[in-house]
Protein 1
Amino acid sequence: ARDSDETETATFGLGCFWGPDAQFGAIDGVVRTRVGYAGGTTRDPTYHSLGNHTEVFQVEFDPDTITYRKLLNLAFESHNPHHQTSKTQYQNVILTATAAQQSTLNEFLSAQGFTADGISTRIEQLSQFYLAEDYHQKYKLRSVSSLMATFNEAGYDDQAVRESPIAAKLNGYAAGHDVAVVRESLASG
Ligand code: MHO
C-alpha cells in the first residue's frame, strides 16, 4: 500500500506563472505549489535573465486525492492547445517527470484526439526546474498584506510560505478560486 504522505509533482507552463500557481493551488489534493523556470538549456535563469526558459509552476499533489490525469485535464482546459505564443517566457508546455506521467499524458492526448505533433502545446521531459525568486512565489497571496503579516508573525520566512500547504490554498482564495467550486468541477469532470 502506498504511504499516504507520498506526493507526486506535476510541472506545467501556462503563461505568466502567477495565475496558474493560484488556480492549481486551490485544487483539493494539491498540497504545495512552486513557481520557477524550466524547459530551456541556459544555466541558472532568473526572472530578468531568463535565457531560453519558460515560466512554469509545479504542483505537489496527493495522488490518493487527485490524479495526474485530472491535473492534465485542467491544464488543457486552461489553455488553447492549438495556439502558442511566440514568446518563450509564456509558452504552454507540459513537462513530464517520469515514465508514468509520460504514458498518462499519451493516453490523455489520444483520448482527446490529440497527438503531440498535432498540437501547439510543447510536450517535453522535465530536465531541470529552477525556483523563481521569492517575490514570485504565492504572488496573489503576497498582495494581501494582512495575511502575509499573519504568516510573518507566525514565524514563516519566504521559504516556509512557499512550501506551506495553507499558503497554497490562501493564494488560490486570494485570486478568487474557491476550493469547494474546484472540487465540484473535478467531481463532474
Ligand atoms: N509582467 C507581467 C507578467 C508577470 S509574469 C510573472 C505583469 O506584470 O503582469 O511574467
Protein 2
Amino acid sequence: MKARGVKISLEGIDGSGKTTQLKLIEPELLRLGYRVYLAPDNSDASGKGIDGSILRILRKGRDRFFRLGYPTTESLLLAARASFLDERDTVPKLERGFVVICDRDIDTFVAYGLVSMVAKYPERDEKDLFQWLLSLVSVGRTQPDLTILFKPDLDTFLNRATVARGRGKRDRFSSKDKIFIRSVCRYYDWLAAVNTSRIRVLDVGGKSIQEVSQDVSALVVPFIRRYNVPTSE
Ligand code: ADP
C-alpha cells in the first residue's frame, strides 16, 4: 500500500533542543487533527521484541553512545533494530496516514556511527566509511520526508553546555567531548550537503524555545499540508 502519512525526523547533537521541540509540535499537530506517532528513540530499551533485546545488548557497555569498542558490530545491530521497528511499526503507521515523528533517525545513526568507525579504522578513507553507513540505511528503512537539523552556535554551545554523566551528575564538556561533538557536527553537515531537498538546517543559536518552536511549525505544518496527509475528522 502506498504511504499516505509523512515521516519527519528531528536531528542534531545532544542538547540542541530536539526533544523540547518534539513536545511542542506534537500537541500542535494533534490540535490540527493529525494522527501522530512518535517513534521510540535509542534510549527506549523497553521493547519486548528484537528491538529491546538488541538495545539491552548494546547498553551493557553503559555508554550513552553505545560505544563498546566494536563499531562495525554496533552499527549493524543498531541498523537491525531500526529496520525491525520500521517494518513493524513505522511502515503500517505511514500506510494508515499518520504523521510519524522521530527524535533522531538515519542521520544520527550515520553521523555518530561515523565518528566511532573513523576512530576504529583511522587508515580507512572517511568517505568510504560514510558510504558504508549510508548503505546500511538505504535499504529496509523508511526515509524521512522532511528532516530538521538543529544547528546550535557550536562555540557558544560547547562553552556553556554541560553533559550528563549519569546519576543526575553533570560536567562541563571535556576537550575529548568537544572533539567528538565537532566531528558529529561535521558529519551532519556532510549529510545535509548530500540531502539538500530532505534536510532543512535550522539555526537555533541564540534563539529562545518559543522562537525555535515558531521556526519548526513554519517548516512542518505547510509541509504536511502539501502532502495532503489525512486528518482524523
Ligand atoms: P535534545 O533533545 O536535543 O538533547 P533537549 O530538548 O533535551 O535537547 O534540550 C536540552 C536542554 O536545553 C533542556 O534543558 C532544554 O530545556 C534546553 N533548551 C532547549 N531549547 C532551548 C533554547 N532554544 N534555548 C534555551 N534552552 C533550550
